[in-house]
Amino acid sequence: MTYLEFHLAFILPPLLLLLLLGRPRPPRLWAYLLMPLIALLYTTPWDNYLVWRGVWGYPEGRVLLRLGYVPLEEYLFFVLQPLLTGAFLLRIAGPPPPPGPGVFRVLGGGGFLLLTALGVLLLALGGKALYLGLILAYFAPVFLLQWAFGGDLLWGWRRALLLGVGLPTLYLWLADLYAIRTGIWWIAPEYTLGPKAFGLPLEEMAFFLATNLAVVQGLLLAWHPEALRRLR
């Protein structure tokens, strides 16, 4: 199976099904359509660096062409994943709930500040800690800003947050495991710590969790009227 066929088999069918079951409508449509562009712009330099360093890669014959160090299908994935996760979130989010206690802005921001520091430390160590360090150092600051700005809003929407992150992440873990086992892409063992779940490296699990968390939290904040009032 090629990387493009992976999209056709694992990403497009559930995405199209979710969109058929409930097409996104204003006022949530604009954020849903903008999120893939944000994800693509934010992940492109990070992804190119990982491939350049040899943290992960793609065998010849599994991709169509490369733009920079990254295959075209990889850029397509960073567009399709937010669309898939966002389409599922549209089905379960419901109306915006009242904000939770304001202390969650402090607790969430503080927790992700510590994760950011851990990521920087792992980057400094390098070697087998490199991949996890790159994930934490690059994505934890995003979560820090999201929770410092609207942690009380995310706590109020915690059911949608947990389901919206958890189920798409579990699905993508299974798809990723298939892709690694069939050789669509590979992960370098010299840049991973070693622990695996059913053959899936810890870092790959953290990657899909982090990217889905960024998408879901970003959409929930964009959809909450209180967040828009704070921006004004």
Automatic annotation (TrEMBL):
Primary localization class, coarse: membrane
Keyword line: Carotenoid biosynthesis, Isomerase, Membrane, Plasmid, Transmembrane, Transmembrane helix
Location in or out of the cell: Membrane
Pathway where it operates: Carotenoid biosynthesis
Membrane-spanning segments: 6-22, 29-46, 75-94, 106-125, 131-149, 161-185, 205-223
Residue ranges of domain Lycopene cyclase in the record: 6-88, 131-215
Membrane topology qualifier: Multi-pass membrane protein
Keyword Membrane attributed: yes
NCBIfam families, per database record: CarR_dom_SF (TIGR03462)
This protein's name: Phytoene synthase
Species for this entry: Thermus brockianus
